[in-house]
Amino acid sequence: MIVWHYLIGVLKIVTIDLMLAGDNALVIAIAVRSLPKPQRRAALVFGAGAAVALRVALTVVAARLLNISFLQLGGGLLILWIALKVLLDASEPPEGVKAPGRLLQAIWYIVVADITMSTDNILAVAGASKGDVGLIVFGLCLSITFVIFAANLLATLMDRFPALIYIGSAILGQVGGEMILTDPFVVRTFHPSNWLRYGVEAALAAGVVIAGRVICAGRARGKP
């Protein structure tokens, strides 16, 4: 019975991690895309390692995370800022930014974005594990493994097809809008309808890309 309990728990966690890894992988892929490949690997390893440690700590209070007002609101605003910032960074030539600074910046993006966007994953893993510490650690480490693999694949595709950066930034804009409008404070205060949510998410998705294009064009005109 104990073996079957673990096998069923592992199967649930693998399924959850596969379903919920996409958003995190996308923001990480965009964050590391402008780095040279050796630094890209370092950013993924160090960023993911820090994210795993923080995820394990957060799982202890996972059941209360979604009920904290302003948590998702602040997280959504942060995701919008990261989406715009990495879009601007990706438009700069690699020699335009000092490598160590860019590496540390990418690691910071990975850690902050992963924790901000992982509430659903943490809650799902905590629920599927039913308090088993071994299954919790396994699930969180596995989720990071999936995210790193998917992020590396997406970053490689972005190298070949730069237009994917704009698509990725637009998706992050939508994710940021969704987080903002599902924050408990926003729901209690404004009671946003589904149509309003869809409209705001679409506007933010387009707004991130348009703002990025406008700022990049302004920078290009200002250079000699």
Write up what this structure looks like.
The protein has one domain (2-222). Helices cover 85% and strands 0% of the residues. The chain is built from eleven helices and no strands. Helix 1 packs antiparallel against helix 7 (119-129) and helix 3 runs parallel beside helix 6 (99-117). The radius of gyration is 18 Å and the shape is globular. 39% of the residues are buried.
Oligomer: single chain
Rounded average pLDDT: 75
Q: Which blocks of ≥5 consecutive residues have pLDDT under 50?
A: 94-98
Q: How can the largest sheet be summarized? A: none
Strand pairing plus helix content: what structural class?
mainly alpha
Q: What is the number of strand segments?
A: 0
- The total of helices stands at 11
Number of separate structural domains: 1
Spell the H/E element sequence: HHHHHHHHHHH
Given the C-alpha coordinates, what overall shape results?
globular
Which helices and strands occur, and which strands form pairs?
Blueprint: H1 2-20, H2 22-32, H3 37-59, H4 62-65, H5 71-91, H6 99-117, H7 119-129, H8 133-160, H9 163-181, H10 184-190, H11 194-222
How do you describe this structure in short?
It contains eleven helices and no strands. It has 224 residues and is mostly helical.
Descriptive terms for the model:
224 residues; 11 helices; mainly alpha
